Amino acid sequence: KTEKDPYLKYIDGSYDVYIKKPDGWGDKINCYAYVDEKTNNGEWPGVEMKYLGEGVYAYNLPDDFKTASVIFNDGVSQYPAAQQAGLEFTKGQSMAYINGSWTKVEKKADDIKITFSADTVSAKVGSEVKLTAQASGGSGNYTYKFIVSDNSGNWYKIRDYARSNTCTWRPGAAGNKTLYVDVKDSAGAYKRAALPIEVKKVNEKLSVKLAESPSGTAKVGSEVKLTAQASGGSGNYTYKFILSDNNGNWYKIRDYAKSNTCTWRPGAAGSKTLYVDVKDSEGAYQRVELPIQVTKQTEKLSVKLAASPSGTAKVGSEVKLTAQASGGSGNYTYKFIVSDNNGNWYKIRDYAKANTSTWIPGAAGNKTLYVDVKDSAGAYQRVELPIQVTKQAEKLSVKLTASPSKTVKVGSEVKLTAQATGGSGSYLYDFLVCSPDNNWYRLRDYEKTGTYLWVPKTVGNTMLYVDAVDGEGNYRRESLSILVTK
Question: Where is the PKD/Chitinase domain (predicted)?
Answer without folding.
Answer: 113-202, 209-295, 304-413
